[in-house]
Amino acid sequence: MLILLALLLAFSVVAQDEEPVVEPLDPPETIRIAYVPIMKFAPLYVAAERGLFEKYGLEAEIETVSSGTEAIAFLAEGQIDVGGIAIVTSLWNGWNQGLEIRIIAPGGLEPLENSPTQLIVRSDLIESGEVETLEDLEGLTVGIAGGPGSGGEYLLAKALEPADLTIFDVEMVNISNADMPLAFANGALDAAIVGSPFADQIIAEGDGVTFATDFTPGLMTVAFVGSSQFITERPEVALRFVLALTEASRLMQGEDYYDPENIEAYITYTNTTEEAIMNAVPFVYDPNMVIPLDGLRDVERTHRENGRTEYDEPIDLDNVVELS
Predict the structure, then answer these.
(1) Of 276, 322, 324, whose CA–CA distance to 104 is shortest?
(2) DSSP labels for 12-35?
(3) What whole-number distance in Å separates Cα of residue 242 and Cα of residue 94?
(4) CATH 3.40.190.10 segments of the chain
(5) How confident is the model at residue 323 (pLDDT cuts 50, 70, 90)?
(6) DSSP 3-state percent helix, strand, coil across the chain (nearest 5)
(7) pTM > 0.85
């Protein structure tokens, strides 16, 4: 009921200067949030920078983590209320074993075309002719954020599919998105799955070339996930968190994405540059915060078929998404 109610109420949220559709909490309540600093979580940054959490009576304590795996541990231990994370294998294994955390809102969705999440190959490998086709990646070192069973590994699996290669045909290296530009500059990686804005930084610095993109059009690979304690014991806080994200997303549609206040938020929370943001193709930020279930099923299937899960049968998404 929580998320359904949030979505229904969100349809009435049309501008920041209007009265909230639900009363702000008084006194304000603290919500602890951890996120991986990539543009797929931009509604969080806009909500924080433009006062939307305060509008709903929330005091947001926001910190970064290097990967979703780290945030999952914090969620399970009750150290945070919400994690902005990739949908990784450890989550699926946890859900199969009864892990009580649930997806409450989507992160940025992959665009249908010109995706900012890219398979980047080192420039010198392209120039030398060592890498000309996807098949040439076999045996090379490829960076992914999060390691085995991560969202990065899933994206790599989808990128390699057209060449009939699997994740086991390359040498995968776990490295955060923020560290990838330096790794390309010093030749530590041959290729990588890189998200915005770091892919744009690598290309702008001349260290890498876009080799493949649009391998997961319209897909949700990251989400905002709430702890069981947070969802069940403080539903009024969870509701307002989703509403703040929804309102933030609506402030990012079309040309409003480049509003100066939004740009400042992106820079503040991802430690990137305005130039990189302006040159990047934005992700899709659903103005109604609808969770795309079909994409979730594909993520689960891919990890399961790659042997990354500890179970063999598909998971019931009722144990994954907070929709009831």
Answers:
(1) 322
(2) T---TTSPPSSPPPSS-EEEEEEE
(3) 23
(4) 2-109+219-319, 118-213
(5) low
(6) 45, 20, 40
(7) no
